[in-house]
Specification:
Blueprint: H1 5-11, E1 18-21, E2 25-29, E3 37-43, H2 59-74, E4 80-83, E5 99-103
Antiparallel strand pairs: 1-2, 2-3, 3-5, 4-5
Bound molecules: adenosine monophosphate.
Residues 5, 14, 16, 28, 30-32, 85, 91-94 line the site of adenosine monophosphate (AMP).
């Protein structure tokens, strides 16, 4: 999508701190980290949020979770949180599906 920030990051039009990339997804460090480790994993195909996941595109979500587990193992992360905000009230500010991966500090539940 031409006006999507994360599509521009995937295309390399906006710089990012890349953590991982393959044919289906891209991972990069969050620009405003909320934990010592905070990266985002996104599908290369534009999907607006979890609310747009369906039978035609859900395989990439399974793949993203495999990638998250792989990165976590490689980085020695044994405790971490995976979050996806859906809609403005939940805190979504970029409308391209993304999974926050946060680690390295104590976290509370429920979130604020
Ligand atoms: P959300 O608010 O759940 O939609 O998450 C969007 C995330 O994208 C926020 O945590 C932002 O800090 C992050 N973000 C926004 N712009 C950039 C950027 N250029 N590079 C990396 N992360 C970004």
């Amino acid at each position: 999508m031409s006006d999507c920030l994360f599509c521009k990051i995937i295309a390399g039009d906006i710089p990012s701190s890349k953590v991982y990339e393959d044919d289906l997804c891209f991972a990069f460090n969050d620009i405003a980290p909320q934990a010592p480790t905070h990266f985002l994993v996104i599908p290369k195909a534009h999907i607006g949020s979890v609310s747009e996941v369906n039978g035609d595109n859900s395989a990439v979500v399974a793949h993203i979770f495999e990638v998250i587990a792989k990165i976590a193992k490689e980085q020695g992360m044994d405790s971490y949180r995976v979050v996806s905000n859906i809609g403005e009230q939940a805190g979504q500010s970029v409308f391209h599906l993304h999974f926050h991966v946060l680690s390295g500090r104590d976290m509370t539940w429920p979130p604020g």
